[in-house]
Design goal:
It is a single chain. The protein is α/β, with parallel strands linked by helices and 307 residues long. Helices cover 45% and strands 22% of the residues. The protein is built from eleven helices and twelve strands. Strands 8-7-6-9-12-11-10 form a seven-stranded mixed sheet, sandwiched between helices. A five-stranded mixed sheet has the order 3-2-1-4-5, with helices on both faces. A hairpin with a 6-residue loop joins strand 7 and strand 8. The longest helix has 23 residues. It starts with a strand and ends with a helix. The mean pLDDT is 94.
Length: 307
């Protein structure tokens, strides 16, 4: 069957249509993405501004047009932290559902972490053993670990790259003092997370999903030969730490010329790098491997399991 997945995230509204069957790997046939960076539309009271709501609805309308043309057998529509945490989130959800003509599932932070962990587990397999996963979105940071497909610990923290850019790195370039303040803020929020993971077995493999982490790994990490024509990309904490001050001195308009940094990530890549570095430090991680699969694949895989 053909399944559509519409992910309304903090950075993008992404429609994926994939061929799926029980026991098989989902194969994407259609992918349409609108870059929103919703964090810049947040009002002081925590609501999404009218301009931000209009941007969401325009992207949803475009997704609806594609769905009408492609006619997948079913649709899963999800929303994450930007809509979840907005003070006017309930009203925005109602408008999205009316425009889409379909119900919207708003994922909790822990559910987002669990589904992303499932995607990473399936990609790296059982041989990865005890798995520790980081995922940095626009609004939140998810961390999960475990030896099965359902993590033993799954946390979500308000340390997304877009959110941290707006709140702590508003200048372009941000400069060393702003980066230092963001480091301190991230370090403070990661203290309880480090305590929650302290009782878990040491990970056999550490992975990072999301476009932000994949971009940083391409920029600062190592590309290794993988299997079946795919590359493996690793990133050490030291490599990442070396790049943070360099990224912070570059204006956003110059960052897109760097390897791995796409135009839609130029504004928030510094905040993403700082948060990831602090998270790796808090959990004593020396190196991670980038995961090609993330939340959308986790949603697809969970649906396949239900067939």
């Amino acid at each position: 069957m053909r399944l559509g997945v519409l992910d309304i995230g903090s950075n993008t509204v992404h429609l994926l249509i994939a061929e799926i069957h029980a026991g098989g790997r989902p194969i994407a046939s259609v992918s349409e993405k609108a870059v929103l960076r919703l964090m810049r539309f947040l009002e002081p009271d925590g609501s999404i501004s009218p301009a931000g709501v209009d941007a969401i609805l325009a992207a949803v309308t475009r997704a609806r047009e594609i769905l009408d043309d492609e006619r997948p057998d079913d649709l899963l529509a999800t929303a994450t932290s930007a809509v979840r945490d907005a003070t006017n989130g309930t009203a925005v959800i109602a408008e999205i559902e009316a425009r889409l003509g379909h119900s919207l599932q708003v994922l909790s932070g822990s559910a987002e972490a669990e589904l992303t962990f499932l995607a990473a587990r399936r990609w790296f397999g059982w041989s990865a053993g005890q798995l520790l996963m980081f995922d940095i979105g626009g609004g939140s940071l998810e961390i999960a670990c475990g030896s099965e497909e359902v993590p033993d610990v799954a946390l979500s923290l308000p340390l997304g790259a877009g959110r941290m850019t707006i709140e702590h790195l508003p200048l372009d370039p941000p400069g060393d003092e702003a980066v230092a303040r963001l480091r301190e803020h991230a370090r403070h929020l990661l203290v309880p997370a480090a305590a929650a993971f302290a009782g878990q077995p040491a990970p056999d493999h550490v992975v990072g999903s999301s476009k932000t982490i994949r971009s940083l790994a391409r920029l600062a990490g190592n590309v290794l030969t993988g299997w079946a024509g795919s590359d493996r990309v690793t990133l050490s904490r030291d490599q990442l730490g070396d790049w943070v001050p360099r990224l912070a001195k570059l204006p956003a308009e110059s960052r897109h010329i760097l390897p791995g940094i796409t135009p839609d990530r130029t504004f928030q890549i510094v905040a993403g790098a700082v948060v990831l570095h602090e998270a790796m430090l808090a959990l004593s991680v020396d190196e991670l491997e980038a995961s090609p699969w993330a939340l959308r694949e986790g949603v697809l895989l969970r649906y396949i399991e239900s067939l």
